[in-house]
Amino acid sequence: MVVYAGQGDARWSMDVLWGTRPDGQRPGPKQGLTVDLILDAAIEVADAEGMAGLSMRAVGLRLGRTAMSLYTYVPTKGDLVDLMYDRVLKELPTRYESEDGWRAPLTSWAEDNLEFHLRHPWTLQVSQARPVLGPNEFATLETVSRILHGTGLPPRALRGILGVALNFVRGAARTVAEARAAAATTGVSDEEWWYSRSPLLAEVAPDFADRFPMALRMESGKPAPPEDPEKPYQETAMAESFTVGLGVVLDGIEATIAKAGERSRD
What we know:
Elements: H1 10-17, H2 35-49, H3 56-63, H4 67-70, H5 77-89, H6 103-119, H7 135-149, H8 155-186, H9 190-204, H10 208-211, H11 213-219, H12 233-265
Helix pairs in contact: 1-5, 2-3, 2-5, 5-7, 6-8, 7-8, 8-12
């Protein structure tokens, strides 16, 4: 499920996002609510039930109000999503120490963003094709852009690197979030799913090793089971994949810096 930003009342949402109309109220009877209270409730609903469970009715129920009573404060669900998304982005740090260069702060930034998306997995369903254009969204981009500026690369290269970094973190977070949701959605744990199918794979494809030797080679590189029996093995494997993948991204940035330096010397 993909949700696109900016589907509501453009003037209203931009005014509220940027504080030119902080109360957000529209003409109509007042119900003792505020936009902030509605956003808090909406975020709780989305965190618990995902974007599919988010509705004005669900938010109203959490507040002990009807859906209709919310429209005095928030004109449409589209406006609600815009404000929710920008609001939770405020949780992200906006400053990273950079005395030792760009690599350490960019690593911290990636780890913080991964944890953020896993706290609020519904944010992964808000499309990046059309930004919310809120202050906290711009603040998050300013933060990572400031880190990348330390590489000394020109804006065109930095724009491409920024896209790679953002897509890598969101992709990793989406995989973990989907793995966490799989058991609850299907009623089958990862262990049950694999145990029911692995023997069948050996049965229906006895020549699997000959046909797909690289798949077996990749399988041999899987991490050892976690010491904590309560921690799903799948998440352990994904965490290692994130660490390795992030290292590759960072190495790629360093190679780009080195290549740019060679061109400038030539």
